[in-house]
Amino acid sequence: MTTTPSLHEDQPQLSWTRYLGFSTDAKVIGIQYIVLAFFFFLIGGFLAMIIRGELLTPPADLVDRTVYNGLYTMHGTIMLFLFIFPVLNGLNNLLIPTMIGAPDMAFPRLNTAAFWLVPVFGFLLIASFFVPGGPAYSGWWSYPPVSIQNPLGHLISGQSLWLLAVALSGVSSIMGAINFVTTILRMRAPGMSLFRMPVFCWTALAAQSLQLIGLPALTGGAVMLLFDLTVGTSFYRPEGGGDPVLYQHFFWFYSHPAVYVIILPVFGVFSELFPVYSRKPLFGYVYVCLASFIIVGLGLIVWVHHMFPSGVTMWMRNLFMFTTMLIAVPTGVKVFAWLGTLWRGKIQLTTPMLFCLGGLINFVFAGITGIMLATVPIDIHVSNTYFVVGHFHYVIYGAAVMGIFAAIYHWFPKFTGRMPYEGLGKLHFVLTFIGANLNFLPMHPLGLMGMPRRVSSYDPEFAFWNVLASLGAFLLGVSIIPFLLNMISSWARGPKATHNPWNAIGLEWLLPSPPPVENFEEHVPTVISRPYGYGTGLPLVEHQAEIERQLILQEASA
Hints:
By secondary structure, this protein is mostly helical. Helices cover 65% and strands 0% of the residues. The chain has a single domain (27-557), classed as Cytochrome C Oxidase, Chain A (Up-down Bundle). The longest helix is centred in the first third of the chain and has 36 residues, at 65-100. The protein is globular and about 70 Å long. The two termini are 28 Å apart.
């Protein structure tokens, strides 16, 4: 019998200072993305606390109304462009190469450049708030001609900074998408066909393909508006023959699929973690994989449902109502697959599993309200109200962010070599789940009652639900404290992690914790079966028992 060479003996201890400089190691870049994203998350969350503090009482008594609109704008753009997308890029950098057996990303220097654009456009984005004529005047859409007819009456330098930041964000994300797609398609381990690939890689491939198709529209639309504002072109100016509605099409052609760019990787996280913590193979593996690309196809033909109130023709309303409802089918395939995986499984309620279950519950609720919003009469009735805000936050925070927390807790020991503390993790989950639902659920009755978004004062009849929402927001703010304590203290002095503390199946769990610089180096195992073989007794790779024996011996001698 052929045996594999010894794995990674005498692995050098790497200094934490490598995270402060330029690196081409995908694992270092992944952690840089995640840490920087949570820095901006704290800023965006602080702005949310101010917003909910203002909405705690009906009168506008905390901040000036113009400042409030700017806070609203900055909260949304920081959370999307500086938290959600970077943190997902961080997970992609950590997981894709290790899951497929690649030594690194296909284009390491491009990977470095994509990351270091983030602090650049992050600085520009935040600086735009403090420059006259910034996004405070027009909201985070920068909707023309509102942005063009700014009451300042001169060059809108703050607005220009904001748009430049959005455009640079698009460039960074396109660079990342090229890297992720190429890596998945060209650098898989021997024997890893597409249908032996982990579902997370399928969802990453689908999401990044969607980035490559849709993101140039938003980036180009932002550049065109920047030209209208600075050099006098008339892409959107009605007085110059331009069409403001064209901007809506550019914006929403990408910005609704962006929701799938965010949620698809989280679907991948659910698909990876449910089998681990129920000790069962993933139910309907092939259908879960294919459903990701069906979502991509349908996701590109739903954007007009955001424009139903803008006077689009009836045939467009009917067509996009149908396509928006249809996208629930492949999404439902995934939900039923997860339920089938959980059914009669040996459920382990670890911190990652709790966040997955909570995220799934919230996503199902968000899906129900999403079908409601797909219906033309309901959409027109609640457009620009807090019903839409509540639905959106259930998707983004209730499902996506909770899935991100699940992923961090699950793969934390693999990439740090330390175990997180379960007690702090479960406290974090309880505070997050209660806070999210207390914050976002009251927004739905508020919207049905007619409370518009982007207002700092409101009628007293809305006070009860706003108080509940604000209390939930403050609880969400508190919930991040045990998370930060857990991450910092466990990385500094937590229990040492073995190579596979969760008894999971996957190439990344056949690496030491933390993995060496080039992962498997020259000895990449040959994949011989599909993933998620829990309870089947089938090895994932050739000579798996020998590989695991050497890892155990290495851990024992450390």
